[in-house]
Every structure is written in C-alpha cells, then in structure tokens.
Amino acid sequence: MRALPVRYVFAGALLLLAAACGPSRQAVRSAEDALYADTALDAAVSASTRTPANVARDRYRHPKETLAFFGVDPRDTVVEIWPGGGWYTEILAPLIGTSGAYYAAAMPNQLRALREKIAADPATYANVRIASFPADTTNPTVPNGSADVVLTFRNVHNWMGSENRAPIAEVAFREMYAMLRPGGTLGVVEHRLPDSGTAERETRSGYMRVATVRRLAEAAGFRFVAASEINANPRDTADHPNGVWSLPPTYRGGDADRARFAAIGESDRMTLRFIKPR
User: Above 50 in pLDDT, residue 5?
Assistant: First the structure.
C-alpha cells in the first residue's frame, strides 16, 4: 500500500487533535452568545421598570420564550412594528440598551402613548428610536438593510382592510423585508383563526389563518423557518360574538359572558419565524 504524503498525514493529525480538544471556538462562541442572550432576557423580563399590569399578562404572552424563539440578541438592531402602548417596549428597550438599537415603528398618530411612556422614564427609554411605518416622506424611517430582527405582535389583522380602512398588508410585508439585512429574522405573533375560517372572518374578527400570514410573508420574499406553540391557547375557539375583542383584556361585550371569556384568557396565537434569504 502506498504511503500518504507527509502533508496529508500532518493535516489529519491536526484534525484529530482538534476533535480531541473539545468543541470548536465557533461552537464555544455560540454557547457563550446563547448564555449572554438568555441572561439578558431574564433581566429584561424581570425589570422593575415594567408596568405591573403588563407583567400580569406574561402568562398569556410568554415574552422570554417568544423573544428567544425569534433569536433576539441584545446586540441586535431590532425593529418593533406598531408597538401600541409599549407592552413589548418595556422589555425590548432595556434588553437592547446601548448594545444594539431598538426602533419603534408606527404611523405618527399611533405613537402618542409610547411617547408619553418615554417622556415619563427617559432613563429606561432614552435609546428608543422612533420611525414611521408604513414609510412616509416627512418622518424618519428604518434604513433599508439595517435590521437584524423585525417583530410584529398581533398586528397583521389590522393590515387586512375593512369598511373604513384600505388594506396595507402587502405593503407592510414588503417594507419589513426591505428593512432587514440578508439573513435577518421576521417574527410574527398573531391571533389564530382555524384553517377552516374564511377570508371574510379575517377582516372582521381580528383572527388570521396561518396560511394567509405565510402567503403574505412569502410573497414579499421571506422564507418560512419555523412555528412555535408558545402562545397557543386551546381554550379559545375563535368564534366569539365580538371577535377576538370579546376576550381579555378588551371585553368588548361588557359584562355579557365576562366570566366565561375571562376563563378562556387571551387569544390563541400563532408564533411564526421567517428569514430574509441571503
């Protein structure tokens, strides 16, 4: 049998030595990054600056598990679309701090409550960047290709249009795609309508079919990565007289069947992760 050249023997010996010495430097870095992100998430979710009423909803919204599923790292540039009154801002702002960048992106007339929150506690929210979404020509926007993660919580149904509102869902997904860097993540949490539901119910109930959300995302160029049942609620049948707003915290029906809706809790939700291909 012919002997191997010395250079091949030497290379093979190096590979064997590397295997014997344990995990690669890349693997060690990945483990360290995961521990760093996990510790930071714990601290942000348990921060004393959070509103007690918001903390009480963690049992329905599972913020740590949700953000971990989306792979949020404190050093990321993170964009939250339509943050409302800032439920997730209370977690994301201290999580990101000055290590990365956090954008709250919404239409200017939607940002009053969030601006009041920021003004009341500038020490916690000093680094929050405000951007317009959908983009307009008079206000700051998220630069294209700048975000590592874009998150939207329970907003897609608002983009589907109604009697008084034109649909913006396709525009919204295209803009989210544009602001992400290649390889970046889109995380979507949305009230879930069973697959047997109709398109008409999606425009009036507040619930969406998983297939519809995937279609919108994939039409914009996203690739579906994974789904999680973190925010599932099997008690929610998604067929209430006032749609998702029958449930807490809205209770649109007032005292009618309030105890029953309280027992159901917040809605059944899909949790979907997409990626912008490289």
Answer: no
